[in-house]
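Worked Example 4.2. Consider the chain below.
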Amino acid sequence: MSEDQTPLYLRSDPRPGRQYGDAPPPKRDPAKIRRPHLDPEVLARQVLAGERTAIARAITLVESSKPAHHAIAADLLRILRPYSGKAVRVGITGVPGAGKSTFIDALGQRLIDAGHRIAVLAVDPTSAKTGGSILGDRTRMGELAQSEQTFIRPSPAGAHLGGVARTTRESMLVLEAAGFDVVLVETVGVGQSEVAVAGMVDTFLLIALARAGDQLQGIKRGILEMADVITVNKADGDNEGEARVTARELSIAMKLINSDPNAPRPPVLTSSALTGKGLDEVWKAIVDHRAKLEEDGRLESRRARQQREWLWALVRGELEDALRTSPAVSAIRSRLEAEVEAGELSALEASDQILQAFAADASSLWPKHPQH
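Applying the procedure from the previous section yields the following structure tokens:
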């Protein structure tokens, strides 16, 4: 046998303890190997100590779609949960171009100067081609990203919950446990992402633009109903007067949405991320709203309701994934789609067949346990 054809494990090996002719070492089962950085207890200690690499690794772990990581992530969150929940959670939305990222950059710097530690979860649209984030919020929060008191995490939205990453809530828990006392969640400002974000924060901030005019028609009533604080951004220079006009129009719109004179209405403010004018007032409105929730005892009940809704949102997401990957469904999917398109089968009949196939498949995966 020539030298080139000699198996590697039969060639001379300079490493200590290895002799010519040794058999190759036995392979270890990857499922039984737990790397130190995936040990939930070790990783939790590092997160609680505020180690940035550990925080990033923990968020990557809870974002992972690999089944092998789910149990580890669950253990990690169980350990970290008692140390979370104390942060001010703020959702920020607005139409594209409203200046959300620039606003967060300017507001975040002021909060850092006031002694806060800021975490930003920027939910980006997902590229249909690569599956990754396509906006890159860190590049648009340049000043804030350089601070050691800030942690910015761009997260691809994925295909679930209207554009909000499924694991945004879990990421919030990790960041709160790491000592960040203000968590800002920026939405993409499209679809149902606002609904999902409003269901995971204490205060929901809507950023509008000056020169609204027809823009009021572009803001969905549902978003206005969810808003706890509204600010008209870019209120500087020649736009300052128009911003005030827009703020008045939005105030009138809020009165029309809820005609009850005793119902609390969100404050409508003006601000400029460029000059910083009005940012302190916006933050005060956010803090006042959260304080009111605590005073009335609604903060705890609000978060409890959010957790309950999140439970069923996760169940729906997991069922959708299971349905999509079911071998039994995959086996009949193309045929049923073709028959529906040809008019040979109604969508209702096809859906019944898909659900029956999925139920049979699921029963084999999750057998019923005998009751004791």
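Residues 85-295 form a domain with the Rossmann fold fold (CATH 3.40.50.300). The CA atoms of residues 53 and 285 lie 34 Å apart. Compare this with Example 4.1 before moving on.
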